[in-house]
């Protein structure tokens, strides 16, 4: 059931947000008298009305190089972007709320708007946040001591630029939900789709001054979150406060236009690289400069998202001398937030730099990758920024992908196409996807947070297994895959395991679904809890079988087995019989053993997990129109032990499609005046099935040594690889006529324009 399918409780009010039509404007006055006079109108709440009911949100930790911001639930004095919510109208019906919203009179004083990093960084720039000294909210840099020497030794220095446009998440169901206040119990129930029910509840309780036991978060199915549905955003908080103030249930259905322009956006970054290289194409050192446009607020610590790009940029390559400078800027656009693979541009930047090196030196792009790639002998490897790889197979995925693509044959075909109406391009991109961020990562980034996940497994008297954890699925198939990990740890039949997630009261406190941590952190916790519970099941089984020890026993598929003469044989005892004894016949248990079968376990991954994949594609570009067609697409990945191969394939398809869609089409565009230009699917193009190829997938399956079940996360790498492979293929095609796109999206019109310019030069 999606949020909007939940029937309205009695006396439910409907909410509509009034949003700023201006990129930057002072709110001089809000007159709600006419709106409130309309039949059915119940209330119009503004920032001033809510300020004493919801505390401000501190947007960033106060660490070096980062300016913290305090964000009120609704603006008190000025709107900062087109779509900024400035008041919420509540009425008996949705139609009455819409009519009342039309009657609210707002007097605005339009202020100068900042619509680009160029504007934001100008010396006389207006300030997006008047409480800050500058529009640059974060500046972080890093350099290894030997970097200058690497550049001094270089035969060539190769520079490249990579720009990525603003995009947004596009969940199937926009943000929607229901807030119910029970005044008798002084209790709030939030029925909003969230990827992280417990952190969501902690934030709601803190912002409203409630204890966590006064708040239940019960997430419905959400049809996609992609990072947009982790923390409570301002509309969720307004609903919670309104329900409490008015003592009535309140519901909200976000429109697609609101979601596109005022949900959260992401990805707007420009990265420039300078590579110091030897004549044979080996990279001796690299620098990168990142300018990120975070819009009017950063809904996640700004240092985290932009810095991860810089931190993991070296990826699968061997160079050790490295430096970066990361600047995060505020502009008058929709706030930024986490979005599937917040570091999505990284692999294009790194592998696009490799292509630039190959072109500058007249070498083959695959050969330059081979010369720079980490080999099995290099692992374990610590990168210049301290990322520790203990299981990585980039050369294996590279060779698998180019082998399947038929790289050599495609290069030969490309050479023979000179007079053709189409250009052939071959794109390669090897990804190192950082995921399952550990507690140490959060500490080092200065972000309050933990990498652990908590799992609970109960076996009921009938043998039914109830597994739970703090993750919530937004489409990852947890009901299957996490039930499988619990069953594998415990030794139960998977059909006996039910996963219960999404409710903050019944699931154990966890960090939620984000950063591709579900399989490894959630799965690791469930697997570990299962293993511990199995030990108890076997101890009880040994007692029931009159054995002195459980050493020769195992539980598989819900059956207790015993090893006899090297063979596992059925004992006739089942998990259900053991469970019945544990619950209902405790006097048969070993002395001192607790009745029941319930295990709670927290699993905190030792370090960040790194997963590698290589994406390889061939594209054809029509010279006359700039139209692109993806001819072949191969992805070879290594996510360790695959819990469910079909789900891994589905996630790879989805992630890659998201990357390709972003690289080819999507653009949350703004005008020079800060006006939002993409408020519907007529303007915000996302890929459709006929824009995408059939994916050919290959797997390496090298188990992670740091996860109890050998699992590595995988669901963001496809987005990174899709962008890199597509953009590198387009540029490989364009290189034949001496041009290159240094910014996404690679739309036909941009490609056509580049071709025209190349012809004119
Ligand atoms: N899996 C597996 N074997 C592995 C690794 C993963 O079978 N070795 C399975 C997992 O059990 C899980 C799925 O693949 O069912 C994804 O696992 P993982 O890579 O750990 O990612 P998460 O579960 O943490 O999911 C979060 C990730 C992120 S960060 C976003 S954003 C995202 C995504 O996954 N949003 C999605 N995938 C999405 N898919 C859909 N349909 N909708 C979204 O909103």
Instruction: Determine the mean pLDDT.
Output: 95
What is the CATH homologous superfamily assignment of the largest domain? Aldehyde oxidase/xanthine dehydrogenase, molybdopterin binding domain
**What is the number of helical segments per DSSP (H or I, 4+ residues)?**
20
Low-confidence parts: none
CA distance, first residue to last residue: 58 Å
Please state roughly what percent of the residues sit in beta strands, choosing from under 5%, 5-15%, 15-25%, 25-35%, 35-45% or over 45%: 25-35%
CATH topology description of the largest domain: Aldehyde Oxidoreductase, domain 4
Compute the gyration radius: what is it? 28 Å
CATH class of the largest domain: Alpha Beta
Largest sheet: 7 strands, mixed
Cα shape: globular
**CATH architectural name of the largest domain:** 2-Layer Sandwich
Identify the bound ligands.
Answer: pterin cytosine dinucleotide
Count every beta strand, where a strand is a DSSP E run of 2 or more residues: 32
Which structural category do the helix and sheet elements fall into?
alpha+beta
- In the sheet with the most strands, the strands line up as 3-7-1-15-12-13-14
Instruction: Give the domain tally.
Output: 3
Helical residues, percent: 25-40%
Keywords: Molybdenum, Oxidoreductase
Pfam family, one: MoCoBD_1
Protein name: Molybdopterin-dependent oxidoreductase
Domain Aldehyde oxidase/xanthine dehydrogenase a/b hammerhead: 2-112
């Amino acid at each position: 059931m999606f949020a909007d399918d939940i029937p309205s409780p009695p006396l439910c009010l409907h909410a509509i947000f009034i949003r700023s039509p201006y990129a930057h404007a002072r709110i001089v006055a809000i007159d709600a008298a006419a709106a409130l006079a309309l039949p059915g109108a119940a209330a119009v709440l503004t920032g001033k009305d809510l300020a004493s009911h919801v505390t401000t949100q501190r947007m960033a930790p106060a660490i070096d190089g980062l300016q913290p911001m305090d964000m009120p639930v609704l603006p008190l004095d000025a709107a900062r972007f087109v779509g900024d919510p400035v008041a919420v109208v509540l009425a008996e019906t949705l139609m009455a709320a819409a009519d009342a919203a039309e009657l609210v009179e707002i007097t605005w004083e339009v202020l100068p708007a900042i619509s680009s990093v160029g504007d934001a960084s100008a010396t006389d720039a207006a300030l997006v946040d008047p409480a800050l000294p500058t529009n640059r909210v974060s500046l972080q840099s890093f350099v290894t001591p030997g970097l200058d020497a690497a550049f001094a030794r270089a035969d060539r220095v190769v520079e490249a630029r990579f720009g990525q446009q603003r995009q947004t998440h596009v969940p199937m169901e926009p943000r929607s939900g229901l807030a119910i206040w029970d005044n008798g119990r002084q209790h709030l129930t939030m029925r909003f789709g969230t990827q992280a029910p417990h952190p969501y509840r902690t934030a709601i309780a803190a912002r409203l001054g409630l204890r966590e036991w006064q708040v239940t978060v019960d997430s419905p199915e959400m049809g996609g979150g992609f990072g947009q549905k982790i923390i409570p955003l301002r509309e969720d908080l307004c609903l919670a406060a309104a329900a409490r103030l008015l003592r009535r249930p309140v519901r909200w259905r976000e429109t697609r236009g609101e979601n596109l322009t005022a949900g959260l956006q992401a990805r707007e970054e420009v990265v420039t690289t300078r590579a110091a290289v030897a004549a044979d194409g080996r990279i001796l050192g690299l620098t990168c400069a990142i300018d990120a446009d975070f819009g009017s607020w950063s809904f996640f610590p700004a240092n985290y998202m932009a810095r991860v790009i810089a931190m993991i940029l070296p990826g699968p390559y061997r160079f050790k001398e490295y430096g970066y400078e990361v600047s995060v800027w505020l502009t008058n656009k929709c706030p930024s937030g986490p979005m599937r693979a917040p570091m999505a541009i990284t692999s294009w930047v790194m592998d696009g730099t490799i292509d630039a090196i190959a072109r500058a030196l007249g070498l083959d792009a695959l050969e330059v990758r081979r010369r720079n790639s980490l080999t099995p002998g290099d692992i374990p490897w610590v990168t210049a920024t301290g990322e520790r790889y203990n299981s990585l197979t980039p050369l294996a995925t590279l060779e698998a992908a180019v082998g399947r693509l038929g790289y050599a044959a495609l290069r030969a075909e490309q050479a023979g196409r000179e007079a053709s109406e189409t250009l052939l391009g071959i794109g390669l991109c090897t990804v190192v996807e950082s995921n399952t961020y550990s507690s140490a990562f959060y500490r080092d980034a200065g972000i309050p947070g933990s990498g652990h996940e908590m799992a609970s497994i109960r076996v009921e008297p009938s043998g039914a297994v109830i597994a739970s954890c703090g993750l919530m699925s937004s489409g990852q198939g947890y009901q299957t895959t996490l039930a499988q990990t619990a069953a594998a740890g415990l030794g139960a039949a998977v059909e006996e395991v039910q996963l219960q997630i999404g409710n903050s009261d019944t699931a154990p406190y966890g960090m939620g679904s984000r950063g591709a941590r579900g399989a490894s952190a959630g799965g690791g916790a469930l697997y570990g809890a299962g293993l511990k519970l199995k030990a108890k099941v076997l101890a009880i089984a040994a007692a029931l079988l009159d054995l002195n020890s459980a050493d020769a026993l195992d539980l598989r598929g819900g059956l207790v087995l015993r090893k006899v003469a090297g063979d596992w044989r059925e004992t006739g005892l089942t998990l259900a019989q053991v469970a019945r004894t544990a619950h209902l016949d405790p006097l048969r248990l070993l002395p001192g053993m607790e009745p029941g079968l319930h295990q709670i376990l927290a699993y905190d991954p030792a370090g960040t997990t790194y997963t590698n994949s290589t994406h390889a594609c061939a594209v054809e570009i029509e010279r006359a129109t700039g139209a692109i067609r993806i001819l072949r697409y191969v992805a070879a990945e290594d996510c360790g032990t695959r819990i469910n191969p079909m789900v891994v394939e589905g996630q790879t398809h989805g992630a890659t499609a998201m990357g390709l869609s972003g690289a080819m089409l999507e653009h949350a565009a703004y005008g020079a005046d800060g006006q939002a230009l993409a408020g519907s699917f007529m303007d915000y193009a996302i890929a459709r099935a006929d824009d995408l190829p059939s994916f050919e997938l290959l797997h390496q399956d090298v188990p992670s040594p740091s996860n109890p079940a050998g699992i590595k996360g995988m669901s963001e790498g496809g987005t990174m690889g899709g962008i890199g492979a597509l953009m590198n293929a387009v540029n490989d095609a364009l290189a034949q006529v001496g041009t290159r796109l240094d910014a996404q999206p690679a739309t036909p019109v941009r490609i056509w324009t580049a071709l025209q310019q190349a012809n004119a030069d």
